[in-house]
């Protein structure tokens, strides 16, 4: 049986059992193999834009005798999928802005899916905002630590449409739900708490460093960092009851 990293195991486990999954940016196809082995998907279309990973993925799939259930395709984003061909799409290990671009260009494929499992490496707030703007339902969010790094996983249900006001953060404050994940805040997620505490301490160091610099750029950066720290401290106090 294929062994996955903690991050990719969580990604795979978030997929609801279905007929077909599109594993976009499949790398070595470990997630694709796992989904079929565990019968979470009857078939998988595993695609990547790079020749190297495609070649390795093909060898891995053949070694596991799964070529009849996992199809390898080379191409850019969701261009490799025909609308209606898959029930779920996995996008993991890429920047948030690239992820948004892939979803936007492949909207016809997305809207024929039931579920998206997303693991953006950056710009997570922008990804959350994009999903809500499109009316998709951010059903759940998980946060985990793997090899010392923090990761966010988003479970998106395409046809459980949500109105913008349903993602309202007024019970918390301002845009906290977009910034840190409404589901994580409502669950008082311990990993998010750990990340917030770590980020609070990091901003303290940045403030001390920037305070001694008399440049315009340093002044602007200092203002931004102080604002971030103020927000983090407010979240820690209101959500987790942590002062300081």
From TrEMBL:
Gene3D superfamilies, sorted: Vaccinia Virus protein VP39
Pfam families: Methyltransf_18
Keywords: Methyltransferase, Transferase
GO terms (BP aspect): methylation
Protein source organism: Coprococcus ammoniilyticus
Protein name (record): Class I SAM-dependent methyltransferase
GO molecular function, one term: methyltransferase activity
EC nos: 2.1.1.-
Matching SUPFAM superfamilies: S-adenosyl-L-methionine-dependent methyltransferases
């Amino acid at each position: 049986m294929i062994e996955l990293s903690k991050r990719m195991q969580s990604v795979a486990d978030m997929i609801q059992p279905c007929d077909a999954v599109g594993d976009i940016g499949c790398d070595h196809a470990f997630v694709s193999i796992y989904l079929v082995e565990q019968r979470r998907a009857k078939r998988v279309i595993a695609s990547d834009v790079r020749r190297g990973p495609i070649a390795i993925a093909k060898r891995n799939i053949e070694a596991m005798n799964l070529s009849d259930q996992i199809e390898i395709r080379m191409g850019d984003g969701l261009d490799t999928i025909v609308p209606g061909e898959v029930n779920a799409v996995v996008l993991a290990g890429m920047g948030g802005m690239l992820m948004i671009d892939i979803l936007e260009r492949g909207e016809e494929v997305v809207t024929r899916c039931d579920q998206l499992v997303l693991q953006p490496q950056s710009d997570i707030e922008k990804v959350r905002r994009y999903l809500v703007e499109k009316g998709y339902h951010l059903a759940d969010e998980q946060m985990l630590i793997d090899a010392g790094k923090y990761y966010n996983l988003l479970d998106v249900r395409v046809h459980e449409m949500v109105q913008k006001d349903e993602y309202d953060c007024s019970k918390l404050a301002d845009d906290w739900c977009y910034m840190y994940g409404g589901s994580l805040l409502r669950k008082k997620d311990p990993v998010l708490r750990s990340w917030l505490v770590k980020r609070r301490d990091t901003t303290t160091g940045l403030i001390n460093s920037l305070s001694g610099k008399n440049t315009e750029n340093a002044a602007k950066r200092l203002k931004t960092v102080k604002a971030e720290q103020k927000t983090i401290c407010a979240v820690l106090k209101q959500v987790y009851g942590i002062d300081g």
